[in-house]
Prior knowledge:
Blueprint: H1 10-33, E1 52-60, E2 63-74, E3 79-88, E4 98-109, E5 114-121, E6 126-134, E7 140-149, E8 156-165, E9 168-176, E10 183-192
Antiparallel strand pairs: 1-2, 1-10, 2-3, 3-4, 4-5, 5-6, 6-7, 7-8, 8-9, 9-10
Amino acid sequence: MFVLTPSMNKTTLRFVLSGLLGAGLSLVLMAQDNPPAAPKPDPWAPVRPLLGQWEGEAHGESGTGQAVREYAFVLRNRFIEVRNQSTYPPQEKNPKGEVHQDQGMLSYDRGAKKIVLRQFHIEGFVNHYVLDSVSADGRTVVFVTTAIENIPSGWRGRETYTFTREDEFTEKFELAEPGKDFAPYSETRFRRKRP
Length: 195
């Protein structure tokens, strides 16, 4: 520690002060040369708006029904768990009615730098999706299957999520038979559930 005393002459005092000012200037210049690191991008950004509980109306091959869904971080926030149920009452298009359930896990593949979705359906299908695209405004997110278990080879699936408002999104599910283009299978309009 340096202490100023009355016996110091003006030259010594100037020398000490210039040294202190120079050291301070050096610190300022070093801080400018080494700006703080930019925050890392959020790998979950495209799907983060899905977090929470949802309810909605489903329309498609199974008829018209009601759907409930939940997206929640699990396992130290390394995965997003998805729980879904769609209930179709008996109707002309589906005389017996049905209750469809599926569960899924979203994960982030650091090597591929892609979000992956694995869905397990009550009918025995297991869909392996990868994030295919995100619109420039971030409001449309598209997943395309890389494999589907327990279905003849060559089938493909595509899920498109479009955020229409902060608390609303539409999920469009499409299927493609081997060698054919995607065709609509179902569309569900979800609204965030209020506690």
